[in-house]
Amino acid sequence: RKEVEQDPGPFNVPEGATVAFNCTYSNSASQSFFWYRQDCRKEPKLLMSVYSSGNEDGRFTAQLNRASQYISLLIRDSKLSDSATYLCVGVNTDKLIFGTGTRLQVFP
Amino acid sequence: DVKVTQSSRYLVKRTGEKVFLECVQDMDHENMFWYRQDPGLGLRLIYFSYDVKMKEKGDIPEGYSVSREKKERFSLILESASTNQTSMYLCASSHYNEQFFGPGTRLTVL
């Protein structure tokens, strides 16, 4: 079983929709989590950190559920520019463990 | 502005060749990493370094070696390239847990 697992998608949603991605992790010792965004043929870039209390950055909300060992990312009012692959990332002994990514395609 | 650069965007090599992939960061970060990214497998850690002349094996070090002679430079070496090393190679440096990636090198081994 992979340490961080994501649904690969693709999620095809219209502009303005709300979309949510989940990610599960197997190592309860993982200390921190992040969401990275990767555009086609580009490098990954940090989107946001994930805190136990949940955190929000504009249209993006990230949640961590330690009891069930999953992380979520909610995107409200989707834009065409949100089309990308979203990587769920856990931290284990100072190394980042990347999920394989969930692909989002927002259409007009 | 944070910057990680890699020596080549695209590289084509032949089986058995020695290949050098260079990575330079200008952020004075202690930590540097080399990953490869393949469809369906995500990013996998090859080697990392927490300091000059220091290196640690990642999850898939076989067939690779690294060199860190200066803080800003971290090189990945394929001693004898093989076709299964065809991949996208990404270098990163980090401050705490946020990693900054270079643009990647797409390596094809024929």
Brief account:
Helices cover 0% and strands 56% of the residues of chain A. Chain A has 108 residues and is mostly beta strands.
Characteristic terms for this protein:
heterodimer; A: 108 residues; mainly beta; 5-stranded antiparallel beta sheet; 56% strand; globular; B: 110 residues; 7-stranded mixed beta sheet; 4-stranded antiparallel beta sheet; 0% helix
Question: How is this fold's topology laid out?
Answer:
The complex is a heterodimer of chains A (108) and B (110).
Chain A: E1 4-6, E2 11-14, E3 19-25, E4 32-38, E5 45-50, E6 55-57, E7 60-65, E8 70-75, E9 84-92, E10 95-98, E11 102-107
Parallel strand pairs in A: 2-11
Antiparallel strand pairs in A: 1-3, 3-8, 4-5, 4-9, 6-7, 7-8, 9-10, 9-11
Chain B: E1 4-6, E2 10-13, E3 19-25, E4 31-38, E5 42-49, E6 56-57, E7 64-70, E8 73-78, E9 87-95, E10 98-101, E11 105-109
Parallel strand pairs in B: 2-11
Antiparallel strand pairs in B: 1-3, 3-8, 4-5, 4-9, 5-6, 7-8, 9-10, 9-11
| Mean pLDDT across every amino acid position of chain B | 94
What would you call the structural class of chain A? mainly beta
Count up the helices of chain A: 0
Largest sheet of chain B: 7 strands, mixed
